């Protein structure tokens, strides 16, 4: 069996930060809670937008440029544990993220989804989050098919600036 390597030197800062592999099942312990405590929207935190209950954050490991995560600021893992304000905020944030992505990237479509629970694929199962990402006709290419690698053509700070400038007014 051969082992393929892909140079990803940018990941060293993440690994050294101690966030790698931290599922964070406990309140305040997860990466999303740390981001929520970090304050207002900024390129440093990846937070593109936040309200009293909700925030939209760039995915640090995007499937496509502009891949956003929309989540309650509070550590909560299940839809039925959201307060009415958090439930409204989650959908409001998801809708705004879709608008911003369409405006900033002009995709052919969007993927929206949530993985509820570890067996459903949630990387951070204790902190509910929605994935919102742009898709284009033909955006899966030979790299994914042949090399099992995704090519993301845009740096996260560029995605942040682009989405922030296209975020709908509230």
Describe this structure in words.
- A five-stranded antiparallel beta sheet has the order 1-2-3-5-4, with helices on both faces.
- Strand 1 and strand 2 form a beta hairpin.
- The protein has one domain: 2-Layer Sandwich (HIT family, subunit A).
- The protein is an alpha+beta fold and 170 residues long.
- Helix 3 packs across helix 5.
- The relative contact order is 0.18.
- The protein contains five helices and five strands; from the N terminus they run H-H-E-E-E-H-E-E-H-H.
- The chain is globular, with a radius of gyration of 16 Å.
Key traits:
15% strand, alpha+beta, 5 helices, HIT family, subunit A, globular, 170 residues, five-stranded antiparallel β-sheet
Describe the structure in brief.
This protein has 170 residues and is of the alpha+beta class.
User: What order do the strands of the largest sheet run in, or round the barrel if closed?
Assistant: 1-2-3-5-4
Please give the alpha-carbon distance between the first and last residues.
53 Å
Largest β sheet strand count, sense and barrel closure: 5 strands, antiparallel
Low-confidence stretches: 18-22
CATH architecture: 2-Layer Sandwich
Structural class: alpha+beta
Write down the secondary-structure element order.
Answer: HHEEEHEEHH
Q: Helix fraction?
A: 25-40%
Strand % is 5-15%
Which fold does the CATH topology refer to? HIT family, subunit A
């Amino acid at each position: 069996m051969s082992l393929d390597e892909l140079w990803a030197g940018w990941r060293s800062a993440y690994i050294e930060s101690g966030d790698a592999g931290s599922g964070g099942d406990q309140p305040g312990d997860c990466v999303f809670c740390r981001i929520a405590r970090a304050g207002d929207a900024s390129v440093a935190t990846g937070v593109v937008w936040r309200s009293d209950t909700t925030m939209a954050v760039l995915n640090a490991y995007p499937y496509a440029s502009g891949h956003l995560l929309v989540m309650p600021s509070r550590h909560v893992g299940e839809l039925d544990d959201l307060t009415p304000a958090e439930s409204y905020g989650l959908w409001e944030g998801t809708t705004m993220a879709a608008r911003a992505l369409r405006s900033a990237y002009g995709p052919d479509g969007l993927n929206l989804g949530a993985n509820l629970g570890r067996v459903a694929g949630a990387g951070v199962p204790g902190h509910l989050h929605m994935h919102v990402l742009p898709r284009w006709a033909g955006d899966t290419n030979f790299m994914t098919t042949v090399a099992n690698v995704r090519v993301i053509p845009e740096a996260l700070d560029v995605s942040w600036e682009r989405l922030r400038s296209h975020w709908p007014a509230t």
